[in-house]
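PT: before anyone asks, these are the final sequences, not the draft ones from last week. 653 residues across everything. Please model them as a single complex and drop the result in this thread when it's through.
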Amino acid sequence: MNTTVVSRRAAVPDLVLTLGAFLLGLALLLAFLSVAGFDAAAGLAALWRGAFGSRYALLSATLVPAAPLLLLGLAFALAARAGALNIGMEGQFAMGAIGATWVGLAVGGWSPLLAIPAVLAAGLVAGAAWIVVPVVLRWRFGVTEVISTLLLNFVAEAAVSWAVTGPLQEASRSYPQSDPIAMSARLPRLLPPDRVHLGFVVALAIAAVLWVILARHRLGFVWRAVGASPRAATVTGRLPVERVAATVLLLSGALAGLGGAIEVSGVSAALYQNLSPGYGFTAIAVALLGRLHPAGIVVAAILFGALQAGAGAMQRDAGIPAVAVHVVQAVVILVMLLATRRRG
Amino acid sequence: MSDDAILIGFGAATVRVATPLLLAALGETVSERGGVLNLGIEGAMLGGALGAAVGAAQGSAVVGLALAVAAGLVAALLLAAVSVWGRADQIIAGTAVTLAAVGVTGLVAQRTFGSAGAGLELATLQPVEVPLLGAIPVVGPVLFRQSLLTYLGYLLIPLTWWLLYRTRFGLELRASGEAPTSARAAGVAVRWRRTAGALLGGALAGLGGASLVLAQVGTFTEKMTAGRGFIAIAIVVLGRWHPGGVALAALLFGAATALQYLVQASGLGGVPWQLLLALPYLLALVALASAVGRARAPAGLARDDQEES
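LR: through. Structure below.
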């Protein structure tokens, strides 16, 4: 199924729309919190403290989740610009984390210059591998990737559960988690002791590369043409719609897998269950808020990274469950869909 | 345990586990026949589950059912407002509705039940034996010693068929899903029909969530629907958008899930339990691949009502 998710022409200037949608989401969440009887003011204060309130909040909280959100946001946007919908990033992230942990445990004797690229490559490969089945189902059987990628999220969850109680479980076998990966396989911190790590720079670099490809390269032109009008592309016969869909989905899966790898290599250093607090779905909001443009996605990833960081503080300090942020994500998605939908 | 007892236990568990899927999938069938692919059905089920738990915690399963239907309707209304009337992409909008439901149910559950959450003493729906039919060997205990919601599911199979194929509303709904532009030219209020179809789907998904809480699990936990709404969508495809086919497909998925109990009961070691956990989702993938070519989705499915299909 090819879908043009958003048109590139908006009724309102970009930055106003982006910030407006985000603030509207926050406002609706606070209104809901008040109605439900939570202390919304304390929640907002905790949210701000946790996200931007200090150097620590920004560099050790906000920018840490911003890195995987940026990669996954790019993953969604890349496919969506070419008319394919990858709703399975949560699963590809998990498989990337499994792959990265597996390699990370094995490269103890290597130099970091080799070990880190190996771990990141494992994430890329595992993420791409996890989307092969949806790609084949679409290519051979015409099954929409929307449902197949979505269903595989649950299979990936079961796979992580199996890995951390089976082949990758820590040597002492006490908890469902892996042993820590080798020190040489861990992404260095950018500004120690703050927790923001090299993965954020990797994600920024990929955003820049994608920007160039989408705006300047022939490939980007073909992808956008297919995304803009799959029917025209099919009818003219000049553009290989299905080949483009397969390519962008594989790349999208690889990027989402890389997200899982940098999370293991830069943050958790081990494999756990529920490593992602729903990044795969948050990233859809990130991509739409960024108007499917790499530069916009960088801004959106930092905003949602802040929200993720703030949600942690909100749960600790104001007793408001962190799942509350899903309300903001939902509002952002719906507002962006409505504000940028096709007219006619 | 004797082989018969194991088999009957497996059959009864299959029907019990299939009930939420059946209710949600019948609703989704109606919705998709009208052209609305509702990925928010997962959220509607989750809302229904919470509504049922809140009502049952007050001591009344009936209040729980009413709240479950209301929650499902709200979720479907949101999707219809944004995608049918606002003409936004159905798939992404449905994902957003599910996200919203995860957030809202998490907050309301925390507010209502506190952080402890689980271990509630709920007024659940106990199995009711149907007189005479329940006494039939094997078939009786499998099909006719179930909760009232399962019997509602049985009734809804012919009712949905009748609605879709024997009423004017059903004809107009299917026209709105197959060829919205032509339907409009023929005087059908396409958006209202699509809205009605989506709302029916939401209400049934809410009931599906309720049956998960009241007749199966007996408590509410965050994200407890665990993709059952998405599986219901696969069931609709496998059932070829037809109520009878959908009922059989729901039963198949119920069996895939109930297999866990069978394996536990018969003590087949060596199979990682996570594989059994993943089985329904893998089965859904196979179902999608095998259903293509034999079935055709409504031509206007997940399309805007202004688009030529």
